[in-house]
Amino acid sequence: MNMLICSVDSSATPASVCLFEDDKIIAEYYLNTGFTHSQTLMAMLESVLKISGKRADDIDLYAVNSGPGSFTGVRIGVSAVKGMAYAQDKPCVEVSTLESMAYNFLDSHTIVCACMDARRKQVYHGLFRVDGDRIERLCEDKAIAIEELLSGLPNGEEIILVGDGAELVYQSAEEPAVKLAPPNLRYQRASSVALAAVETYNRGEAVSPAALMPRYLRLSQAERERNAKLNKE
Q1: Helices (H), 53-182
Q2: Over 50: is that where the pLDDT of 222 sits?
Q3: Do 8 and 1 meet the contact criterion of CB atoms below 8 Å apart?
Q4: pLDDT value of position 177
Q5: Cα angle: 204, vertex 136, 92; to 5 degrees
Q6: How far apart are CA 119 and CA 37, in angstroms?
Q7: What is the pTM of this model?
Q8: Domains of the chain
Q9: What are the distances in angstroms from CA 204 to CA 19, 91, 207?
Q10: CA gap 18, 48 in Å, rounded
Q11: How much is the pLDDT for 174?
Q12: Would you say residue 152 has pLDDT above 70?
């Protein structure tokens, strides 16, 4: 596919920006320092454009992990992409944060269990079968208790845990086939967002900048507290 894709992830503590063209990564900036994404994301984009000799006008498609994840982080990433794409009138692709991590394991033959820490003894969870260059979704993204997640895993197959909730699940697991992904493959990256976006775009599922939205799986803590207060009244 001869197009330049700019992909973004800021759904958890790490943040990354990637430029992907002609089925190859031409530049990627990954940061895992805990700095505020609102301070770093645009600077990262400017850096990858400059070092690769590209301009914002050269970008054909924007892609972003639209959730689940940190409410603030997801909102920052989606807002940044909406603004850039709107200014250039370019299409966008929403990517599930959980699904993007399965693309870290392309060319493998395994099941990827994506887990992001959702607090309150829950994780955001998605399950994917990776068969070479094919990713098959085995369940919808959901917020789920760790015990429920473990009881629903398929038996007799190797399962790789990814995401910032992977270690929480691993510590609770008794199944020896459950393995922690190595650190270099455990977390979401913008390059994997681009790979997932190619598939989505080819299915004709790109959206306009106006239609690009965060995809939360549950209400934020502030919204839950507000609803609880209203119910008491």
Answers
A1: 71-88, 97-102, 146-151, 166-172
A2: no
A3: no
A4: 74
A5: 30
A6: 20
A7: 0.92
A8: 4-97+188-217 (3.30.420.40), 99-186 (3.30.420.40)
A9: 21, 11, 9
A10: 7
A11: 81
A12: yes
pLDDT band per the 50, 70, 90 thresholds, residue 34: confident
Task: Report the 10 Å Cβ neighbour count for 143.
Answer: 16
Burial status of residue 232 (CB atoms within 10 A of its CB: 0-12, 13-18, 19 or more) = exposed
Exposure b/e, 54-82, CB count within 10 A at least 16 = b: beeeebebbbbbbbbbbbebbbbbbbbbb
Question: Which of 43, 2, 5 is closest to 190 using CA atoms?
Answer: 5
How far apart CA 155 and CA 96 sit, in angstroms, is 25
With contact defined as beta carbons under 8 Å apart, do 102 and 130 qualify? yes
Query: How many C-beta neighbours within 10 Å does residue 31 have?
Result: 17
In the three-class reduction of DSSP (H, G, I as helix; E, B as strand; rest coil), residue 187 is classed as: coil
Mean pLDDT value of segment 113-140: 96
Number of H helices, E strands in the chain: 8, 11
Residue-wise burial string across 187-225, b where 16 or more C-beta atoms lie within 10 A, e elsewhere: bbbbbbbbbbbbbbbeeeebeebeebebbbbeeeeeeee
End-to-end CA distance of the chain: 56
CA nearest to 41, candidates 18, 59, 67, 61:
18
Contact by Cβ (8 Å): 214, 11: no
Q: Which helix (DSSP H) or strand (DSSP E) does residue 44 occupy?
A: helix 37-52
Total residues found in the chain within this entry: 233
Identify the residue whose tokens are 């473990």: 150
Cβ-in-10-Å burial (0-12, 13-18, 19+) of 122 comes to: buried
